[in-house]
């Protein structure tokens, strides 16, 4: 009789744990989805990628027309590299300085008037200032080149990560506006994210960094397979309308063998175990 009673308790406990076990479903998605956008409006000159291409961080995806800027850059470079005016003003400065020294020497001998000495000094100072102004103008031209280089860079759309191009929204010759700057979409598939919305009880059992098991459907339809994942994020707030908590799980996918968009399931074994009583010494213990 005692054995029968114990067996009934275990069966009832197992049934209770099964009924209380919670299962949560989600879909895999890329760990990053980046909508590349043009920082300026303009006509598309070149598109360097197509759907399915793998791109590297900082690689050029698209280029907007920049003929006018390139011409402006040539002018700015010519002004920055030109030294003719600087050299001529340097010669004039040296001449005026020599004349000032001669006039001041003659002034000491009483051979020239003070007014003439003041005029020679002013001419030398003006010549030196003109030379300095030419040097500053050259520096401004160099800065102008850098400014145009920055504007030319803004006409390029570069990849921000190592990823896969899944969409290209424009072709050469089309116009990209500031109201619709999105030109391409790149995803990172080295990791896949599963976003589960679990009960508060389950969320309290896990924290970021823990390893969990996720059941993933097979692409050939032959059931599921078990994969190891790592908890990336557990929301600190329970959604008031649903009573659910967001929990993100990352699955490593370095070879890109797992497709994004597959259905996945998370069963909380801790929830099941927490409801299974143990039987020791003729009594049940939790």
UniProtKB/TrEMBL annotation:
GO CC terms, sorted: efflux pump complex
Signal in keyword set: yes
Entry keywords, A to Z: Signal
Signal peptide residue numbers: 1-21
Superkingdom as given in the UniProt entry: Bacteria
GO molecular function (one): efflux transmembrane transporter activity
PANTHER family associated with the record: HLYD FAMILY OF SECRETION PROTEINS (PTHR30469:SF15), MULTIDRUG RESISTANCE PROTEIN MDTA (PTHR30469)
Protein name per Swiss-Prot or TrEMBL: p-hydroxybenzoic acid efflux subunit AaeA
